[in-house]
Structures are given as structure tokens and as C-alpha cells.
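During the reporting period the student researcher (J.K.) took over the structure-prediction task from the postdoctoral fellow and processed the backlog of single-chain submissions. One of the processed entries is reproduced below for the supervisory committee.
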Amino acid sequence: MSEHESMDEVRRERFSRPGFDSAEYYAGREEAKLAIEFANAIRERRLELGLTQTQLALRAGLRQPDVSRLESGGGTPTIGMLERLAHALELRFVARFEKPDAA
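J.K. obtained the following C-alpha cells:
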């Protein structure tokens, strides 16, 4: 991207490419958004408790690089890992499916 291109111009160029799948693009964006929200929630709660990444990792039975990866929005935690993290963060892990809001 040149310094004079706007993000809108880049997006228009990308969307006009042959074979571009906008549904896949938007699904990827939503997945990334959820990962970042999850990462922020872990980091904020860890900081509220005054824990380092290493301390959280020890409490959760993880390694510090695992915590770092999760806090940066990378990796896909297992259900077991989520349960251990919740316990280590003094929270309750709840997973549920909800119907989307009606438009």
C-alpha cells in the first residue's frame, strides 16, 4: 500500500480481484474481532488481579508463552484451557449458543 492510498481504496481493489470471497473475508474479520475481545478480557482481568503472565500461567497449568499468545489474540484455546483460565482468573467459565438478534 502506497502512502497515498486510503484503506477504502485498498479494500475496493481487494474486493474487485477475481475469485475474491467477501463472505469469507467478513467471517475472518468477525473471528479476528472475537479473538481480540477475548484477548483483552484475559489481559484486563489478569491485571485487575495484579498477576504477571507467568503467575497466571502457573495458576492455570499453562506456560507463559501460551498466556502471551492468548493475550495477543493468537491461538485457539481448548475448552479445558478456558476452564483452567477462568479458575485461575477467579471467574466462572460459561459457554452458550444464542440466537442472533433479529434485524
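The committee noted the following: Residues 42 and 71 are 6 Å apart (CA to CA).
J.K. will present the remaining backlog at the next meeting.
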